[in-house]
Amino acid sequence: MANYDRQLLALDATQLEKFVREWALQKKVDYYKVERFSGPGDRGRDVVGFVTASLHEGEWDNFQCKQYATTLPTAGVFHEIGKVLYYASQGEFTAPRVFNFVAPRGINRNLAKVFYRPTAFKAALVAGWTEHCETTIVDGQKIALTGQVLKTIEGYDFSRIAKISIDDILDDNAAKPVLYKWFGADPGPAPAGENPGAVKAEELPYLAQLVDAYSERGGAVIADHNEAANHPTFGSHLARQRERFYDADAFKRFYRDNTDAAVIEAFESDIFHGVADTCDGDHKDALARSDAVMAQAAAVQPSGILAPHSRVKAKQGICHHFANETTPRLRWRRP
Q: Which of 42, 140, 238, 280 is most buried, most CB within 10 Å of its CB?
């Protein structure tokens, strides 16, 4: 993937929050729901990933977004941690499972000295409470480090506090579709597909079309895909088609996950219109039509961001996906 440091650094504070929210939304495995809090009353929460339907009564992760012109200052970090833990001590929400500081320009040297030492980090916050937190959390009030506030801070595991750098974002696969949406980022090549061996139920429509074509070419009925797979003439042909089908499946899933649905739709449209006239042409039989479409698909040059990643097997396999649809866009046997 290309380097998108400059684009991320160029985002303003609000844009960074929106980017992080969309990034967190991609972490479907991690979060039940993602919300962005902004402006007065955010209680130190910029973007929140709720782990369960219990929302703020259960586990949640905080993404505190800090788009500064310089590295993240110690005072700002202590203030934000103090604010969130103060409101947690007052019962407004549970203390966050993870407290992430999204800091594109990193943290300053003084903060770095304690950031990776949880016990020292906590001690530094306690020692700096009067300076950084006491009068800055609630306007016009002094928040003393006593009672439930002190108990909450002393009970919090400061190893849960983390920083997220530009490299962390760029290295996360979940960020790829967001980088594409915001900056047109190239998601890179899709992984190759793997034939699972055993035929799956979802393959049966396109396989039935191929079996029918083999029966026509051979002049004798081939009962099903199992018989075709063991046929001395057609077995290797069928194996290649299944390899193509699964390569296209992996191709589609990768780009659907790492760009957006419109990218795959455009790719499929290019392939279909590139082979449709060949499919409609005159051929001696259904297998000749299928083979001609495969040859034409290999030569199609799709447009857009997937152009450099459109390998032959994926383009050919997409044609079998067309043949596999409930109402097939491609049929090998003419009525």
A: 238
